Amino acid sequence: MTKARKFILNTFLKLTSMTCPYGHEDALVRDMTAKGIFPSILQKDPHGNYFAKVGDSKTIFASHLDTVSKSREKVIHKFEGDMIKTAGNTTLGADDKAGVTVMLWMMAHNVPGLYYFFVGEEVGCIGSGKAASSINDFKGKYDRIISFDRRGTGSVITHQSWSRCCSDAFGDALAGELNKSGLSYKKDDGGVYTDSAEFVDIIPECTNLSVGYYKEHTFDESQDIAHLTDLAEACLRVDWESLPTQRDPGKYEAKGYSSKDYGYSSRDYGYGDWSTGSRGKRKSKKHNRGRSYGFHDDWESDDWGRDARYVSPGWDDDWSEWESIEAQGAPKGKQYYDSGSGIVEIKTNSSHYEWVMSKFVGCRLTASELMVIRDQYLDMNNPNDFSFYEYLVDYVAEGGIC
Asked: What pLDDT sits at residue 372?
């Protein structure tokens, strides 16, 4: 076993030994620092994110610490050749511990850059959104942000949701640098809204790279550890500072889809008109962009999620119990995660729905993803959430399913 393979495998297995829902990131960092996985140079920003600066660079490397899970649970690993899976009763957490692993390898080899480990990506890019709001910390100081957070083994993301996040010249150059090490990357315009997208207004080139995970957010999640090792080694050879900087962060470049492409109706449940994607405010404009899939977004099951066995299984298909939900008067808020010191509540509001749309919904929303949205991001006892879910069910029924 090579030195790189040993480091990547050992680090990944320790990072994924427990699931890490939003609110548990501090405990993860403390535990992994004590075990020598995280370096002692990590600092915490005012928003709860962790970061470290290595050398002098205009590059930010990013990943996120939280995983999709409703509680902190022990993960039992299963090995099938180069693929690492679980015993089938938890998520693996490769989304995004794979990205964290690559960054730790790069830091261990003193690759210059600002290394950011964000919190709360899976519940709305909370940490990165707050960090990006501190514009003076980043604007004019960094030319690029590379987020190691993408399924598959070959994507350099050029568009996230409805808009461009990096230039074609940058995407081609980065793919070319990685491919010098025997990899097979290419531009992919089918990205979803992730941490790096929070910086598109202030940093010219923002992208996500595939790190070799599949079926994220499910009990069937897996990680290609061979690809992760190859990527980590390739990242040591990339000349990050020479990558071209061409995109103007002050210019919004839409992807150019019509509402027909996405199948949105003009039905409005109080959180915006999804057929137009128009909102007005800066944040809303960004978060109201629908999902469009790229060439690696083909893992979803077509059978309403039965094969994928999602994090919160057990809902049946009898929706009659919800017929009078609005008349019952459900609470306005919803509780998602136990932070260890209390329950973290995410209010029911339009920005949350906008984020769900940008994270999941596009021309290929699948029935499997619909189950994830219902179980992980909505409270079916809340009439607003239930109406939003009905809207998505209609969307799938009208043909928005693979």
From this structure: 67
Which 3 state secondary structure label does DSSP give 213?
strand
Q: Give the amino acid at 75.
A: V
Task: In whole angstroms, give the CA distance from residue 60 to residue 213.
Answer: 22
Report the relative pairing of strands 59-64 and 113-118 from DSSP bridges.
parallel
Residue 325 CA, chain-centre distance (Å), reads 32
Report pLDDT digits (tens) over 111-152. Answer: 999 999 999 998 889 999 999 999 888 999 999 999 999 999
What lies within 8 Å, CB to CB, of 353 at 6+ separation is 269, 271, 272, 388
pTM of the model: 0.73
CA atoms lying within 13 Å on the CB side of residue 20: 27
Q: What is the CATH number of domain 3-242?
A: 3.40.630.10
Phi-psi sector, 329: left (phi>0), alpha (psi -120 to 50), beta: left
Strand segments (E) across 178-281: 186-188, 205-208, 213-214, 222-224
Q: Report which DSSP code applies to 281.
A: S
CA distance 166 to 157: 8
**Can you read off the two tokens belonging to residue 226?**
């061979």
Break the chain down into helix, strand, coil percent, rounded to 5: 35, 20, 50
Q: In angstroms, rounded to a whole number, what is the distance separating the alpha carbons of residues 190 and 151? A: 11
* CA–CA dist 351, 90 (Å, integer): 29
Q: Is residue 106 pLDDT above 60, yes or no?
A: yes
Cα 283 to Cα 129: distance, rounded to the nearest angstrom: 10
**Cα distances (Å, whole numbers) of residue 75 to 63, 64, 85, 324:** 20, 18, 10, 39
Give 316's contacts (C-beta < 8 A, 6+ positions apart): none
User: CA-to-CA distance for 20 and 29, rounded, in angstroms?
Assistant: 11
Q: What is the structure's pLDDT at 67? A: 95
User: Would strands 213-214 and 186-188 be described as parallel, antiparallel, or unpaired?
Assistant: unpaired
The Cβ of residue 313 has, within 10 Å, a number of other Cβ atoms equal to 14
Q: Cis peptide leading into 96, omega within 30 of 0?
A: yes
pLDDT tens profile 280-314: 222 323 333 233 334 333 333 333 333 333 343 22
Ramachandran category for residue 54: left, alpha or beta (phi over 0 → left; psi -120 to 50 → alpha): beta
DSSP letter, residue 319: G
Domain spans, the chain? 3-242, 259-397
Candidates 382, 378, 387; CA nearest to 336 is: 378
